[in-house]
Each structure stands twice: as C-alpha cells, then as structure tokens.
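The pair is quoted verbatim as follows:
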Amino acid sequence: MNTTTAEAGRFICHKTMNAGVPRSCLGPRCMAWRWHPIPRNRTISVIYDLRHVEVEPPRPPSVPASYLFVPCDLIEGAWAHWLEPDAEAEARRVGWCGLAGDVTSD
C-alpha cells in the first residue's frame, strides 16, 4: 500500500506482526522501506500582458503563500511562475513496505 511517511506509523509492521510482537511501521527509518520517485514541484503560471516578468507581481489568491516566485528566464525562454518549495514536494512523496510486497503506483 502506498503511503506517506506521516501515514506509515498508523500501520502495523509486517515483520513484527509475524513475530508475534506487533509494532508500528517505521516508514523510511526501516531498511525494507521503498520509495516512489519524488513528485515534480508544482508550478503556477499566471499570464500577464508581458510574459517576461522580472519583478514579482501581486500574488493571486490561487497561489499558496509558501510558493516562491521565479522570474522569467529570457535565455531559456521560461515564463515567470510561482514554484512549490522542495519540502512540500518531498512531503507528498509516497513509499511502501518492501516486506509486504511491491505495489503499483497510484
């Protein structure tokens, strides 16, 4: 079962259950824990009259306060946008117990 690290502790460890001493899952602190790839950071682009915005415009209500403003990159041709912080993307990462068996991603 795919789960976040915060949710893993709600489950009983497969190995300790078979040993007769059930304990909570340790999640990523266990050697059997397997990770899915880190999800890509979410981006929010807001189109203005000019796509080449270099100074942060007023933040729209739809953009979370934690997101970081990234100005346009004229060399790369990237539009200005707000980017989800790495810690928030990492918090959405899920894994599963390698002892309980492999699962397909959600």
Q: What stands out?
A: The longest strand covers residues 33-35.
